[in-house]
Amino acid sequence: MTAPNMYGTTALTKREQEVAELVWEGYKNRAIGQKMGVSEHVVKNHLRTIYDKSGTWNRTELALRIEAGKHTDLYREFARELIETANNFRATAAGQ
Q: How far apart are CA 26 and CA 21, in angstroms?
């Protein structure tokens, strides 16, 4: 997402990804903790690490970044499909 931080990486752990996804879905810290079977304090610790790794300042910015990423993935897949279709068309036209 951004340049390496104090943790030396930008990759989120599986648990951090789970917390981030639940934030994106609109869950509050207490509900995230209950859903994951951890305390609210543990959720807050995960969020601090997530914010640092992702270069975000709060849950709203994090959720917006996740949303933008989901759309980016959809656009990439759509672009790949368009390129594949164009290549198939060219190959078919060249064969005629």
A: 9
pLDDT in tens, 73-88: 767 777 778 888 888 8
> CA-CA distances (angstroms) from residue 26 to 10, 86, 93?
23, 40, 50
What CATH number labels 14-95?
1.10.10.10
Domains in the chain: boundaries: 14-95
The closest alpha carbon to 63, from 89, 24, 26, 19, belongs to: 24
Q: For residue range 17-67, what is the model confidence (pLDDT) as tens digits? A: 999 999 999 999 999 999 999 999 999 999 999 999 998 999 999 999 888
Q: DSSP secondary structure string, 6-59?
A: TTS--PPPHHHHHHHHHHHTT--HHHHHHHHTS-HHHHHHHHHHHHHHHT-SSH
